[in-house]
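thread: overnight batch results

M.L. [08:02]
morning all. the overnight job finished for the chain we discussed friday. pasting input first so we're all looking at the same thing
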Amino acid sequence: MTRPRAARPPMSALAMLQQEVNELFQRLSILDRSDRLPGSEWSPAVDVLEQRDRLLVIVEIPGLAPESLRVAFRERALVLTGDRRAPRVGSGARFHCLERPHGKFERTIPLDLPVDVAAARASLRGGVLTITLPRLRERRGRETVIPIEREPTE
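M.L. [08:03]
and the structure it wrote out:
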């Protein structure tokens, strides 16, 4: 006895499935780079260390000068931007291997702890940028009385 063949789905359904699979792989490929903005060409490694009285953000950026970096605090997040120039080679020279990233980068590091941005400091030594953000005393749990205003009577 011959088994009837299952009908093949129309080509449009296969094309839709292929598109969904492609989108899934695209999302998975950028999963660990979610803090990278679309205009960024590379992303430096960052460590965030919480200590009792401060928060330390340590960024690996070898070969960058302080003039090519910018550190800002915006909307409860630390925003790091910079630009590493492509290496220049003389005429007749060519690369056999080029693995060090170059171009612009932007990293946004959300900070959920209260920090004193006015007292923050950043230092660059040996290709490592260290940003020190003093912590503010925790304000949760403290009672703050909100005064009630009376509506004027007529």
